[in-house]
Amino acid sequence: MSLDYSKYSNLSPFELKDTLISLASSKADRVMLNAGRGNPNFLATLPRGAFFLLGQFALTEARLSLSYLAPGLGGTVRIDGIEARFDRFLADHQGQEEATLLGSALSYVRDQMGLPADTFLLEMVEGILGCYYPTPPRMLTLSEKIVGQYVLREMVGGELPLDSTDFFATEGGTAAMAYIFNSLKQNGLVCKGDKVAIGMPIFSPYIEIPQLEEYGLEVVAIQADPALDWQYPESELEKLRDPAIKIFFCVNPSNPPSVKMNDASLEKVAAIVQERPDLMILTDDVYGTFADGFRSLYAVCPRNTILVYSFSKYFGATGWRLGVIGMHKDNVLDTKLAQLPADTKQALDKRYASLTTDVAAVKFIDRLVADSRAVALNHTAGLSTPQQVQMVLFSLFALIDQEDRYKATLKSVIRRREAALYRELGVKPSEDANAVDYYTLIDLEDTCRALHGADFAAWMLKQAGTGEILFRIADETGIVLLPGSGFGGVRPAARASLANLNEFQYAAIGRALRKMVDEYYQQFSSKNA
């Protein structure tokens, strides 16, 4: 080995990622294979096509007013007759699949959901034109109902009525996280020094944000067990009974193990909540749409749970920045706000005074909206309306797909990629009904034991930590994998996304990893000959 990889041992997570990429891309005659990023290389084209076609209709609607004044000038869209004009527009584009989707979307909204077609079209047309501030700022009225129906169908399987939940449209799951952490702090629901539980392993910002000076939270790890197919042992979930723990943060299905919580774990948490009705929960369910028969913690603990969902992975829309926060209309956070000490309430009355004279009546989800724009800019808050329109079209595309053809295709794609990687590596992937397979964790010890026995596996753990192996892999093969330890994992492992490369490239990764393991085995054999 030409490099001393030990010099990279103290890098920050961002520096580590950048160094791995730099090493992997350092040779001009080699293609870098970056399996460290979760950005998918697939995307939903049909709802995007519908978006662009809807934009053409919206422009014709805007041109019906004021266009006499100057070329390129339009005016306010008229609701009278808009449904008939839309039908004629679709007839002019008959045979185009995006026009068919728009027609089906209107039919679903009108005939299945019972929403007024002309009001829906007006909201979509004005929304895609982006000619008005988002009103209401939390989410456009019918858009909230449609997106809400999609999210609740996918996350809770119809266990909760549509009107049970308020939704706030955000700039992706990233903004949702930032807004929630900030508003919890601003409203005194989580204070510096408080205990928070985090389901590990987890998307690393959930570990890093509590450690920031402005939060200063004490983290209690709820550690999933690889020996239990990455489920949380009962003994770990029992930690949630500690009354000092204010909130439980989890990603479900998990990142990076990519496993959904089983029913036993869900019911265990629900039972604890029955005994601890003050416990707050945040569940980030971005990968739930890749799971079979997914049920969110929001399904079993709706009153205690903040639900975060992002459209980024399932629809290949990371650049669109589309996410929602869902909260039950009767929730424990609002109850906690009412129980705050008098001095805290007085400070909050001052903070939100520009919104209303009755601050006590402002729900937590509406405080999220205000806090997202430093309160004073609440009147211009909200996700941009074209983004909300694309979110609606993604939702309707999925709702109309009664046979789940799109979903089945994505599941098949990522599972074939997993099979190709492990086939070339020479070990079998775990067979688990709760596995989602968006990511895979390649366990160093298990892999080495399966390939060359327990003695070699023990030697590898002592000889080369995962960090060294990952830097060597990047340097010698051009492959980027991320260490499981960066996500709160306790066993040496490498995370590979199964979403952002093609099948033959995952096969190449498997072969390269097998070659490197075999080279280490030759060193082991020569020293023990």
Record keyword descriptors for this entry:
AspAT/PAT-like; about 525 residues; Aspartate Aminotransferase, domain 2; EC 2.6.1.-; alpha/beta; seven-stranded mixed β-sheet; Aspartate_4-decarboxylase; Histone, subunit A; Aspartate Aminotransferase, domain 1; three-stranded antiparallel β-sheet; 20 helices; globular; 3 domains
- Count of helical segments? 20
Largest sheet: 7 strands, mixed
Number of strands: 12
| Shape by Cα distribution | globular
| Proportion of residues in helical segments | 40-55%
Which structural class should the secondary elements be placed in?
alpha/beta
Named at the architecture level, the CATH assignment of the largest domain is 3-Layer(aba) Sandwich
**Unreliable runs, pLDDT <50, ≥5 residues?**
none
Radius of gyration: 25 Å
Spatial separation of the terminal alpha carbons = 22 Å
Catalytic activity: L-aspartate + 2-oxoglutarate = oxaloacetate + L-glutamate
Enzyme class: transferase
Keywords: Aminotransferase, Pyridoxal phosphate, Transferase
GO molecular function: aspartate 4-decarboxylase activity; L-aspartate:2-oxoglutarate aminotransferase activity; pyridoxal phosphate binding
How are the secondary structure elements laid out?
Elements: H1 13-24, E1 33-34, H2 46-62, H3 82-92, H4 97-112, H5 117-129, H6 141-156, E2 165-171, H7 172-186, E3 195-200, H8 205-208, E4 218-223, H9 234-237, E5 245-251, H10 263-275, E6 280-284, H11 297-300, E7 305-310, E8 322-328, H12 332-338, H13 342-351, H14 364-371, H15 385-400, H16 405-425, E9 439-443, H17 444-452, H18 454-463, H19 466-477, E10 479-480, E11 482-483, E12 493-497, H20 503-527
Parallel strand pairs: 1-10, 3-4, 3-5, 5-6, 6-7
Antiparallel strand pairs: 2-8, 7-8, 9-12, 11-12
Helix pairs in contact: 1-19, 2-4, 2-5, 2-15, 4-15, 5-15, 6-15, 7-14, 16-20, 17-18
